[in-house]
Amino acid sequence: MEKRQELYAGKAKSVFATDDPSRVILQFRDDTSAFDGERMESLARKGMVNNCFNAFIMEKLAAAGVPTHFEKRLSATESLVKSLKMIPVECVVRNIAAGGLVKRLGVTEGQELTPPTFELFLKNDALHDPMINESLAETFGWATPEQLAEMKALTFRVNEVLKGLFADGDLLLVDYKLEFGLFEGQIVLGDEFSPDGCRLWDAKTREKLDKDRFRQGLGGVIEAYEEVGRRIGVEFV
After folding, report:
1. Does residue 175 share a domain with residue 78?
2. Most CB atoms within 10 A, among 44, 104, 130, 212?
3. What is the rounded distance in angstroms from the CA atom of residue 139 to the CA atom of residue 186?
4. Which residues contact 201 (CB under 8 A, 6 or more apart)?
5. Of 48, 47, 87, 50, which is closest to residue 178 (Cα–Cα)?
6. Burial of 33 (0-12, 13-18, 19+ CB in 10 A)
């Protein structure tokens, strides 16, 4: 597989073309951002840690019947993935109240949400990823009703699989976001799943072991990511 020109550079990842138009290389960088890019830092080992973490999770999800874009890990910081036509809608599931939900509704952080909530957000950095609903997504052509239904079903399937996986490591899956795209007409999970895009707490102490350590200046960001990985069986190599 020949790596070719850079197609896209996001806040923490870059995408490169290959000699196969249906496959691209996803490169995880050490860059870390918060607050829509207002705060940026480089954290040693982050690219490697997130690449390994993501590969582990994607393999678990695929084994559980969730279609993903992940093909294989190529190096410490790179993975081969399917080239998707991304749907500009993020799906968010919340099992425990935290982050934006607490700010918007004034509920208590840590409150268990039964049943878990499901929200949609438009992928648009300039607008700070505003919350939307199915009607807006359909009206403006961001996704069809059929696509939205499949994305919702897959997002909750991911919740079933990963809540158990993290619970086995004495961890709480607080919330997470997922992005989807189309590959040969099929809805496929894209982007990544790592502590950058979810909240994970220690089940006993409720210590935060995710990107909130960076957002809130708690320190030990990568050490926390590695701790989560070790608890669920990720090998960082």
Report:
1. no
2. 212
3. 21
4. 96, 171, 172, 174, 207, 208, 209, 210
5. 87
6. middle
0.90 exceeded by the pTM? Answer: yes
Contacts for 42 with CB less than 8 Å, ≥ 6 apart: 30, 31, 32
Q: How many domains does the chain have?
A: 2
Could you tell me the residue range of the domain that residue 153 belongs to? 87-220
Decide if pLDDT at 79 tops 70: yes
What is the percentage of the chain residues whose pLDDT exceeds 70?
99
Contact indicator for 3, 20 with CB cutoff of 8 Å: no
In angstroms, the CA 165 to CA 57 distance is 9
Strand-pairing partners, residue 178, are: 91
**Digit-coded pLDDT (tens) for 128-177:** 999 999 999 999 999 999 999 999 999 999 999 999 999 999 999 999 99
Give yes or no for a contact between 209 and 225, defined as CB atoms under 8 angstroms apart.
Answer: yes
65-90: average pLDDT: 98
Question: Which of 71, 45, 75 lies closest to 58 in space, CA to CA?
Answer: 71
**What angle, 0 to 180 degrees and rounded to 10, lies between the N-to-C axes of helices 145-167 and 221-232?**
80
Q: What is the mean pLDDT of the chain?
A: 96
Q: Which of 93, 91, 134 is nearest to 113 (CA)?
A: 93
In this prediction, residue 70 carries a pLDDT of 98
